[in-house]
Amino acid sequence: MNGAGHVSENWERLVEALADDDAAVTAARLADRLGVSDRTIRSYAAQANRSGEVVVESGPDGYRLDRAAWARVLHARSVAADATPEGRRARLIRDLVDARAGLDLHEVAAAAHVSESTIEADLGRVRARLQGTGLRLDREGSRVGLVGPETAMRRLLGSLVREEGRRGIRDLSSLRAGFPSMDRFRVALVAGIRDAGYAPNEYALDDVLLHVAIALDRVGRDRVLADRDDPAASGPVPATPGAARVEASDRPGATDSALDALSALLDRLVRDEYDVRLPPAELEHLARLIGSRVATLQQGPAREAVVRDIVARISQEWLVELGDERFIERLALHVENLAARAAEQSYSRNPLTSSIKSAYPLIYDLAVYLASELARIEGITVNDDEIAYLAMHLGAQLERTRSRGDVVRVAIDVPEYHDARALLVERLQGALGDEAELVEGDVEEADLVVAVLPPDSPLPAVVIVAPFPTSDDVDRVRAEVARLRRGRRRARLASTLSRSIGPELFVRGVGGRDREAVIRLLGARLIDAGVIDDAYVEGALERERMSSTAFTDLLAVPHAMTMTATRSAIAIAIDERAIEWGDANVHVVALIAFAEDGRAEFQSVFDQFVEAFSEPENVRRLVRGATDYPGLLAELSGLMST
Q1: Alpha-helical runs (H) found in 531-628
Q2: Confidence of residue 103 (pLDDT cuts 50, 70, 90)
């Protein structure tokens, strides 16, 4: 995030979603995209504008991002961050990277308006940060310099920019200001990658553009890569024992001819856009990054059989349909490139990781399973960002084959007059897609009635539209369909929760336990109830080590990757005192156990449980009200009905 110490807030998901569209987006579409209610979208918009800048504009057509106002907010954060200790240390590191002759600490203290003892303390923290980076501080009197290979200097710069950059709407911070044609460069690079026969990954492109900007900046300062530098090194990632090593000759896109083609593309684009000729070592370094992170070579993947087998197990165990040949081929190609990145411990960063994890928990969990199988079978170690990319593949395929179980039956109550009714039906069919089924017959049998005139008798759900519906009419119909679908899912969830949570499975207060101890505490309750065994608890702990199950800022949903419970049940712990859960602080922990015969409920319960508590106020309401078991049931019932 821009600004040291700034923590991502839920309203920023709205800003990220709006950044993808230049036109206004309706509340209904945003609610569907983020997995929240229309009311929450309004709340997010108000929160986004509380700085005094109108970042999110609202109007009759929906919501729109004011990019200039958002840029001012980010700039204000950056200025405020430089005044903090973290920001001051980041500035010190950037100045050390740029200063060939080092820095005079007296001058540094004066420029920062702090004491020399404060700068000495900052240097101590900088030294700690440099451990394991290949860089060190060289001190002589009051003068201090940064010593080490150029690749390490660039890794350090990249980590600083990423810390300060806005996740999901990354603008490469101050580096972009020095290269105003970066957007043109991006478009040309994607086109060149596609023309060369690769499948581009634009989500990971910002990270590669960051490396390009750093390379241009450093070459402009006469700081070029030396032959002895490792051009393949692009980010310090802790080594993982047992990780598979893939040789360069085995990597997709890593052949000499492929690297030469990407290097030639970069050379041409950099000369055209910036009138700079990068040395061969620089071009090779950037070409390797592109080849492993943002360009998948369309060739037969060696791991297709492995991927096919894992996908078949996912389809069988989770009752989802994923067996499309084209999907298998695309996923296998992605896994080939993932193996190359894992071998070099140079993972692609994903700006959507947090959003995917919170908005699509089941899909993310399927990706965790896929990653765990790749680790077990192929020795490929996968981090959270790469898991999110796997989730994007799985989610896209599930979207193509999703169940029609929540389809809303919509009756069109419009008098016949020439082709007016046919045009209305055609318009609604195009807008609603497979979320609704337009039906003929008795309007009382429909879930929703779309009418031109008010009905003679009251009906549960009616939307009145013009004979020739406006965009606002269509949006209101879509919003009502979305509300009905959410209501159905919430009702199913409420029913499942009432059957799955007994008084013996509710814990108020966890006594300061850490997340492993909390899982064991809830697991013991489920074991005593005859629901699971010790192996299930160990499976839940193993799943937790793969990736945190804190799917929202305040809620964790630990679970095992198997469905071996004797019956479906949920053990819940609630604590007013925050429980440290990886990088999150949660107040509600729900250990979910599913039986083999409850697999069909898994997606609905898991997704909707997380959705219901994606709104912080819902979690706070539960924490305040669920002081005992009757209070828990009352709060859950209230939350599920909203």
Answers
A1: 534-546, 599-612, 616-625
A2: very high
